Amino acid sequence: MRSAILVAAISGLAAAGPVAPRDTTAQNGIDLSAFDAEPAPTKVGPAVGATVETPTYDPAVAKAEASKDAAANPIAVSNSTLTARTVTPAGCGAKQPDGYGPVSSPDTYDTFMNDPQFSTIATNAQVPAGYSLSFSNKQGATECTSYMGLYTMKTFDTIKCQQYCDAAPSCYGINVYMERDPKWDPTDACPNPDSITNYKCTLWGSPVTAQTATNVGQWRNQFHVGVTGSNGYSKDAPPPSYTDFTGPVAFGGATQAPKSYMGSKYYPGIYNPEQCAAACKANTKYDHDHPRADGTYDACNFFNAYVLSKNNVPQGTYCSLYTQSWDKSYSTNVGQWRGSDYYSVSSSYGYTLTVQDAGKI
User: Where are the domains of the chain?
Assistant: First the structure.
């Protein structure tokens, strides 16, 4: 996960020579080479037909991996399966768990998608305390790189979904929606079985936006899966504080510092500023162990962590590291264009090393 922005380059961990000075001129926008270098996670939502996928994201593991990555690349220039049940009607696959939502009549995809009762359910749903409504009554479910897990519920229960999110580390968004699913697994002998309506709750490791509601269903043989009454909610609370750092301090955008910029790290997927903290510490350790000839080194004393989005769809955690701290007045970059794509900044927070490192052996 090496950033390409810096002029200096370190040949390897075993290098004994001093680290070349970093470019300390003013920043000029977001370094998108760090974003380009990382492959996006391939799992962007629940598996087709899944009714539950318990979140498995472990922030401690992510922190350790970020620390390991920063040391190796210093800045320098589980799905559940359904057990088979009685096969009815003849020729159909396994019977699915009962859906608890109403079934439209006649039982067709078009009727489901145009049934006003689902819009009423969605628009009357309660906004959970501590969350903001990101979108309402969409005919598409969220899909993006920060997918965490799925629960199927007995009602359109936004509060229950919020409770699932609050219990999952690094969960910052939820999507509650109604999905038209087959009552039995479709087969060639049973291509279009009767439907059920499931109330689904998905958890996300980033805020959700209207632009993420792009999963409009799919065909399963001749059965058309549909999504409607889709509501998205994003958590209002800031990320946690971390050991040895003061913060988080809410920023208005990405920091654009006139000097002291060390470089950037980018972690696709779930938003977790603790990865930035780990990278900050690991880069300081590396630089401390490889000082300049005069005994000085670049110490990471501050980092800015934020969600980088492409066309308003969250992509991952972007970290900018600095040798000195900067306040909110310098967080002026809210986004930038590259061709027809707009890269925007949200959930931006600053963290300052509590005991500043002077960068001198």
Answer: 32-44+58-77+240-353, 109-235
